[in-house]
Write a structure and sequence with these properties.
By secondary structure, this protein is mainly α. It has helices at about 1-15, 20, 25-30, 35-60, 65-75, 75-105, 110-125, 130-160, 175-195, 200-230, 230-235, 240-245, 250-285, 285-300, 305-335.
Length: about 350
């Protein structure tokens, strides 16, 4: 039970710790100063969301997200959200593939070659289906977490061990807890619903949801407090993490760049898991072939200016997700006699 619970916890963490999170961009956009309470609220809300989605998936023995949507928001709205989630997963995975190519460019490797390598690795990963995804998470996610925590703690103690607790007196930013969780609720439903059939015990649901919430909340707090200390310099950096790393040796910057690439890859893999699990049933083809077909559709789109697309789509997704977040949080209350 514990082993499986940790396995699902790493899958959830892999969905959350994408390029936006690992680079510090997402955290700084939503949190920043006066956010101690916001991060605490996020930890609680996130754990509840994971628990509700995973419990429905476990009870319904789901293989993809549609049955979970029906349970949460009913049949009619589910049809609309079905299309939205497919579009969301598709566009964000395209952005991740483009990001994977752009990150490799730092090492003077052509963008198109980076895209090709990234795409081939995605296809190879799914030859082993869900097992491949879980094995990758078992290696990459602990590395990502250790790398991030190690870097942040070194930075904090380098600056006199100040965790920035003096910033905690003002807590005006608490509503960010809801918008930040809402941003991530669509991929959470897509990925957790894909494993419903594999969850064997309710204890796994508790371990995965509480474990991922506490771990993510703790990292978010430490990361945010570190970013506050370099707040005046963040504007100079595309990736806020590099403001923290500015006095570190070049080898450390290279190591963290590789970790960022890994974070991009785990997010792309999570998006692909959500997409393939939705279509596999209809196509009756091996997962890696479905992935190959989707990747071939995505590659030409990586050449477009996605910063514009992201600027339009993400706020829109945020609004759409807020409704879904409310539905998830109210589900245990609406079904209290069954729960």
């Amino acid at each position: 039970m514990w082993k499986s619970g940790i396995k699902w916890m790493l899958l959830i963490m892999g969905t959350m710790i994408g390029a936006g999170y690992a680079s510090g961009r997402e955290l700084w956009q939503f949190f920043g100063e006066e956010s101690g309470l916001a991060i605490l609220l996020f930890t609680i809300i996130f754990s509840i969301c994971c628990f509700v989605i995973m419990k429905i998936s476990y009870e319904e023995k789901t293989e993809h997200f549609y049955p979970v949507l029906v349970k949460l928001i009913g049949g009619k709205l589910s049809k609309i959200y079905d299309v939205i989630i497919i579009f969301y997963l598709f566009t964000t995975t395209v952005v991740m593939i483009a990001g994977g190519g752009a990150t490799i460019e730092m090492f003077h490797i052509p963008f198109w070659f980076g895209i090709l390598v990234f795409s081939l690795l995605l296809i190879l990963l799914f030859i082993w289906d869900l097992r491949g995804m879980l094995s990758m998470n078992a290696v990459l996610i602990p590395l990502l977490i250790i790398g991030l925590i190690g870097t942040l703690f070194t930075f904090i103690f380098k600056h006199g061990g100040d965790f920035g607790f003096h910033h905690l007196s003002e807590q005006a930013n608490w509503p960010s807890a809801f918008t930040f969780t809402a941003l991530n609720v669509l991929p959470l439903i897509a990925v957790i619903a894909a494993i419903g059939k594999e969850v064997k015990h309710k204890g796994e649901v508790w371990i995965a949801s509480i474990g991922s919430g506490l771990l993510l909340g703790s990292i978010s707090f430490i990361y945010n407090q570190s970013l506050i200390q370099v707040a005046s310099e963040i504007i100079l950096y595309e990736i806020p993490l590099f403001a923290i790393l500015k006095d570190y040796p070049y080898s450390m910057i290279v190591f963290m760049s590789i970790l960022l690439w890994a974070a991009i890859f785990t997010t792309a893999a999570s998006g692909m898991l959500g997409l393939t699990s939705r279509f596999r049933e209809k196509l009756k083809l091996p997962t890696w072939i479905v992935v190959s077909m989707i990747v071939l559709l995505m590659i030409p789109l990586t050449n477009f200016g996605f910063s514009t697309l992201v600027a339009i789509l993400y706020p829109l997704y945020g609004l759409i997700n807020l409704y879904l977040l409310v539905a998830v949080l109210l589900y245990p209350i609406a079904n209290r006699y069954k729960w």
